[in-house]
Design a protein that fits this description.
The structure is a homodimer. Chain A is mainly α. In chain A, 57% of the residues lie in helices and 11% in strands. Chain A binds a DNA duplex through helix 5.
DNA sequence: ACAACATTTGAACAACTGTTCAAGTGTTAT
DNA sequence: ATAACACTTGAACAGTTGTTCAAATGTTGT
C-alpha cells in the first residue's frame, strides 16, 4: 500500500483535517476512480444474494446438481414455502434458472460466475 | 450441467416426489458435498459485508488508497458517524485495518482478497 | 371432473440493519 | 487546563428481511 505520510510533491503536508478538513487531493483522486452509483448499487444487490445462509446453502446444493424445490427443502430441513420464497429472490437476481418437469420445478445455477464467487469467498475464509 | 432426466443406472426413474417424495439419491449426494453449517454461516456473513451500498463504496475508496474517516465521509457525502459505524463493522469482519495518525484514524483494506471479491462481482455485473 | 401432489403467493410477524442524534473519548496545540 | 478537532459510541427510529401460515395455482393420473 502507499505511504500516506509522504505526500506527493507539491501537496501541503498537513495531515490534519478540517479547515482543509478534507484532503482535497486524496478525495478527488479516490472519487474519480469510484464506479458510478448505479453500478455500486447493483454490486451490493448481487452480494446481498450471497449474504443469507439459506440462499448460500441453496446455491451450494445447486452447484452440485440441479434440484427440485422439494429436494432442496428436504436437504435443508426447511419448508418448501421458505425455499420457494428464496428461489424467487435468486431467480429475480438471475442467479438461478428453472424449468418445469411434470409436477416438479427444477432449479439450476444460472452461470458459473456464481460458483466462482462462492469459491472465492470460501478461499478467503479458509485462508 | 448434468442431465437430470437420465438418471444413473440402477436408480429408479420416477421423477415424481412424495412417497419417495425426496429423491434420496440426489439429496444424499448433494448433502455430502455441502460444506458444514458453520462454514456456510461464515461465508454468508462475509458476503453480507459487501451487501450494502455504503460499505461497498467505502471498500472501493480504500481500494485506491488508505483514507481517514473524515475523507471517506466527505467523499460519500455522509456523516462521519455513519461512516464510523460501518467501518467498525468492516473492521470486525477483518476486511479493513486502521492506524491512528495524530487526530486522524487511517483505514485501509486488510488484504487483497477483498479487492478480488469486488472485481469478480463487477465482472459478473458488467458481463 | 376430481383427488393428490409440487410449487407459488400474499399477509403477518419478529428479527435485523443502517442512519441519525447527542454525548462520549482521544489527540494536538495554545 | 482548555479549546478545537477527529473519531467513536449508544440509544432510538424507520425501513428491510426471512420465515410461517393459509390459501391459491399448476400438473398429473383416475
Amino acid at each position: 500500500m502507499e505511504n500516506r505520510t509522504v505526500p506527493p510533491a507539491g501537496a501541503e503536508d498537513a495531515p490534519a483535517c478540517e479547515a482543509f478538513c478534507v484532503h482535497d487531493e486524496i478525495t478527488r483522486r479516490a472519487l474519480q476512480k469510484l464506479p458510478e452509483e448505479n453500478l455500486l448499487f447493483d454490486l451490493a444487490e448481487l452480494y446481498k444474494m450471497f449474504g443469507d445462509s439459506t440462499r448460500v446453502k441453496i446455491l451450494f446444493l445447486l452447484f452440485e446438481e440441479e434440484m427440485c424445490v422439494c429436494d432442496i427443502a428436504e436437504s435443508l430441513g426447511m419448508t418448501t414455502s421458505a425455499i420457494s420464497h428464496q428461489l424467487r429472490i435468486l431467480k429475480n437476481a438471475k442467479l438461478v434458472t428453472y424449468r418445469r418437469e411434470g409436477k416438479s420445478v427444477i432449479y439450476a445455477l444460472a452461470d458459473d460466475h456464481v460458483s466462482k464467487i462462492l469459491e472465492l469467498g470460501l478461499e478467503h475464509i479458509c485462508e
